Amino acid sequence: MGERSHGLQSWIDRLNEAELPALAAVVQDLHRMAREDTSSVQQLADVLLRDATLTSRVLKVANSVYYNPSLEPIRTISRAIVLIGFENVRLIGLSVSLIDSLLAGAPREQLPQLLARSFHAAVQARNIAGYLMARSQEEVFIAALLHNIGELAFWGCGDEQADELAALLARPGVDEEAAVREVLGTSFRQLTLGLVRSWNLGELVTLAHGTSVKGDPAVKSVNLGMRISEAALEGWDSPAMTELVGRLAGLLGVTREEAMRQVLASADEAVKVATTFGASRLCHLIPHTDLELLRREREQRQTSLLQPDLAVLQSALQELGLLVSRKANINLVLDALFQGLHQGAGLERVMVAVLADQRSRFSVRRAVGEGTGHWQDGFSLAAQAPGEPNLFSYVLKNREAHWMGVPASYSLNDLVTRGMREWLGQGMFFIAPLMAGTREIGVLYADSRVSGRALRHEQFIAFQRFAQMAGRCLEAMAQK
């Protein structure tokens, strides 16, 4: 029988010295880099390269469809940092280290259950943070993932004492807190905070355990993500979930139905994330969103999904070509543009936003697709708010089309403002400048958010072509 540990310091010493020294070192190093402005690509690469297995696991995740939808091969850590971003590679390294250290061997059933809940909470928290703040979403993911690190470490390394606690907790009507204190001599919460301090895991993990800073959007995101992942185990229609969805709707300023859709989409994404990180055995432990109602809804949606139609696409392109020579009016140009992109290329939502009010803001000239009806009346985005650049202005100024949501455009994510996210939602989209010669008119936007399908390369090619043709029509009209 191994030596018993009792009390907070005794457990921290044991976990640091005997059980998890390699994990502690990697986690500390990776977390330190979030705190230091001077952290370089080379420093991050060096930490991951110390362990050949970790390097190959990180590269495998970086090459997955989830992180790298354009499927450009990534063969080195430094290339991964360039393509999918410093913060994403740090997050992958930390997540993979956690999974590999804790799930090695034959873990007790409590460990995969808790780890699955932690991944689910991390994805929920990150997606909530995506609405509330422009940056630090990866930090929120890590804080939620590590929210129960003390309990995770105990179940991973507690040996006989873990068996003892498991037997106690299996008794009907047991007081969980008291049982944990009896076996460990401390609480799981204290053990987490002790490890967080010992490993220097920064403020956010600690703050999310406190009660004094509830107004902080990062802390709100972590706490709500944690609670949603716990309530999901009681059922998507449980009273606890109903209350949390109401709170989320109020926080994001959306309807309860939209909030519930986001929660369910995040649960589906958590399954993808767990698989991507090589922890597919956790997937069945993340509550399934395939309720009968959802299944029916999804089937109806699948049958009505917009499909690309090459004949319509080519016809619309020809029409735009003719309109260039005819110098037609703007409505005919927009008719052909929207027909080509919506019915032709199969893009579910398409919008043209133009500079209005002495070029001070973007307003929607026309939009098509489910849920876009209110864009024309309400959408407004300052063209150049002082100190708050936005993607619309950037695209127009730089005269370049972008496919957002793939690694090549991650560096532009900060330009997607909170206002834009509230109007357009989260996920991939295409955006291109609309020019009449050298005169800036506005931007062309398209996505497939209605079904949540990923955008495809051939759609982006068509999107760029239509943006160019529309520009030629606008230039011809300007020369009338």
TrEMBL record:
Q: Which organism is it from?
A: Metapseudomonas furukawaii
What protein am I looking at? Answer: HDOD domain-containing protein
> In this protein, which residues make up the domain named HDOD?
20-215
- InterPro entries for the chain: GAF-like_dom_sf (IPR029016), HDOD (IPR013976), RNase_Y/CdgJ (IPR052340)
Report the PANTHER family cross-referenced here. PTHR33525, RIBONUCLEASE Y
Q: Name one Pfam family in it.
A: HDOD
